Protein: Putative 4-hydroxy-4-methyl-2-oxoglutarate aldolase
Organism: Cereibacter sphaeroides
Amino acid sequence: MVRAADLLALGTATLGEAWPGARLPGLPLRPLAPGMALAGPAFTVRCRAGDNLALHRALAVARPGEVLVVDYEASLDSGPFGEIMALAAMARGLAGLVIDGAVRDSAQIADLGFPVFARGLDIRGTTKTDRGQLGAVLRFGRASVGPGDMVVADADAVLILPRDEAGAALAAGRARAGREEEMKRRIAAGETTLAILGLMKEA
């Protein structure tokens, strides 16, 4: 079984370069605070913009270690997730939130240390009438994400790994990380990147 911590230790840049099946949503999703990062299996949520009932439903059933991945229709007209919901997510042991939409209470969430990646911020409230969908396969920007796909997010990117490829992606990432460590050793010993990468002719 692939541990989320092992994927997180490699980071999105290494995993994305190492594994051809890695999916990049291509959405402007940024961490709420410096240093935020997350990894875990996706718990997918489809919300109607302006309504957060589906998020409340997700918080009642999502399992420890899962990442809430929320399609909020790219809306920046309301903030469906804030401090209280972050506390509820932490109480359930969730690994974080990735939302194609806005959130609120950014300073409070940052103080809590709950990792959130969002399109933006908006303080306006929401209704609570539309049940939305839980566990659906989402079209998330340029990527698809389904329940159980592995989500890795850090300062560089949000990355999706298909659930049945996570183990191979981890192995490929570790191999790449090993090669990079060797490159660092050689650079410290005085070699140039041109020489290490065999680019002398091109130069």
Notes: Residues 166-188 form the longest helix (23 residues). The CA atoms of residues 142 and 152 lie 16 Å apart.
